[in-house]
Write a structure and sequence with these properties.
By secondary structure, the chain is α/β, with parallel strands linked by helices. It has helices at residues 52-66, 82-94, 108-116, 129-144, 155-172, 189-201, 217-220, 254-262, 273-287, 293-308, 341-348; strands spanning 25-27, 37-42, 75-78, 98-103, 120-124, 147-148, 180-183, 206-209, 267-268, 314-319. The protein folds into 2 domains: 16-50 and 165-332, Rossmann fold, CATH 3.40.50; 52-148, 3-Layer(aba) Sandwich (Rossmann fold). It has 11 helices and 10 strands. A 6-stranded mixed beta sheet has the order 1-2-10-7-8-9, with helices on both faces. Strands 5-4-3-6 form a 4-stranded parallel beta sheet, with helices on both faces. Helix 1 (52-66) crosses helix 5. It is globular, with a radius of gyration of 21 Å.
Length: 357
């Protein structure tokens, strides 16, 4: 086998923002069943390491285009982390102050990353759930005249996935079989944008949606109360706290409602948090692919789909982010800082440079 070679991307980038999108589709080689082919779309290759970089960029640029966001105006948004990190990157590159509201149940590395990128992070109590941090962002926007990003309602969210994520999938699978696309939902932008395109361009591709088994809002059949602007006004009665950060807030977002109303998915398969954690760990240890609990949860569903898929089927699974922003979560439970007994034995198997322990 010859040495691998690279030749650059054939262009120079004018800004970090120009690197958003065009994330790779990667084959799973060791842990997928033999009778199917499984790929993942690794959104951690975005510059701030998650799929939310896409919507963050388009929310800001759409608001710039239509004059809702003026130079130097502060941006504010409620987030579980990834949208806030994406917005912090975009706002840093464009020169906008950013304030993020986030309840204190999400991983601490997320708030530290946002602050590192120049944002201010206003914490709310986890007992007030997503609706609490959401309404806090609304209060701050109204009180200070800030631009509220509205990730859960803005058309700019799904539009970006329609024009980038879905087009990349079409291009990468041009002339190739693609039977299933598997994704979860946070705002619903990914599934709505992909669904619009796939229904028109590849209607035979089945779109599989997932949500936490203990927070099955869509499966409950109970709608989310909204105001005239489409904003959720109450916490959903089917919501329970779950470990799949970035998925399923305690309301059904307006962006997702388009998918529900227009039949842009074929099947809903719930998944447990422990299953998401287990499959994320396997992707890392057996495929070298680092993704968070949300990616593990999507992959767990993809593996469930694979069990009954016909021979030769091709499955694409969305992996929303990287595993590194889950270091303080149960995903890394059992991963020690100190050497374990096997590592100590390896150290002592030769005489030099032994570490005390």
């Amino acid at each position: 086998m010859s040495i691998r070679q690279t030749s650059g991307r054939g262009r120079l980038f004018g800004s970090v923002l120009d690197t958003v999108g065009d994330t790779p589709v990667i084959r799973i080689n060791r842990i997928a069943p033999d009778h199917v082919t499984v790929y993942v779309k690794a959104e951690a290759f975005n510059p701030a390491a998650s799929v939310k970089d896409r919507l963050a960029l388009n929310i800001i640029e759409a608001a710039e285009r239509d004059g809702r966001l003026t130079p130097g105006q502060t941006v504010v948004e409620a987030t579980s982390g990834n949208t806030g990190i994406g917005l912090a990157m975009v706002c840093a590159a464009k020169g906008y102050p950013l304030v993020v509201t986030m309840h204190d149940g999400f991983s601490v590395e997320r708030r530290r990353l946002m602050r590192f990128l120049g944002a201010k992070v206003v914490l709310t109590r986890k007992e007030d759930k997503g609706i609490g941090m959401y309404q806090k962002a609304q209060e701050l926007a109204e009180a200070h005249g800030w631009f509220l990003a509205h990730q859960f309602e803005t058309p700019a969210n799904a539009d970006m996935h329609e024009h980038t994520t879905a087009q990349e999938i079409l291009g990468d699978f041009d002339g190739q079989r693609l039977d299933y696309i598997v994704t979860g939902y946070g705002t619903g932008g990914t599934v709505t944008g992909i669904g619009r395109v796939m229904r028109a361009e590849r209607p035979d591709t089945k779109i599989i949606l997932s949500e936490p088994a203990n927070a099955a809002l869509v499966s409950s059949g109970t709608p989310t109360p909204r105001n005239a602007a489409g904003e959720a006004t109450e916490s959903h009665p089917a919501f329970q706290p779950h470990p799949i950060q970035g998925w399923t807030p305690d309301f059904i977002p307006l962006v997702l409602q388009e998918t529900l109303d227009n039949g842009l998915y074929d099947e809903m398969i719930p998944v447990s948090g422990p299953d998401g954690i287990a499959w994320s760990q396997r992707l890392a240890a057996e495929e070298g692919i680092l993704t968070g609990i949300s990616g593990g949860a999507s992959f767990a569903v993809a593996m469930q789909v694979a069990e009954t898929a016909p021979a030769g089927a091709v499955i694409l699974c969305m992996l929303p982010d990287t595993g590194e922003r889950y270091l303080s979560t149960p995903l890394f439970d059992g991963v020690a800082e100190a050497m374990d007994s096997d590592e100590l034995a390896l150290s002592r198997s030769t005489p030099g440079y032994q570490y005390p322990g």
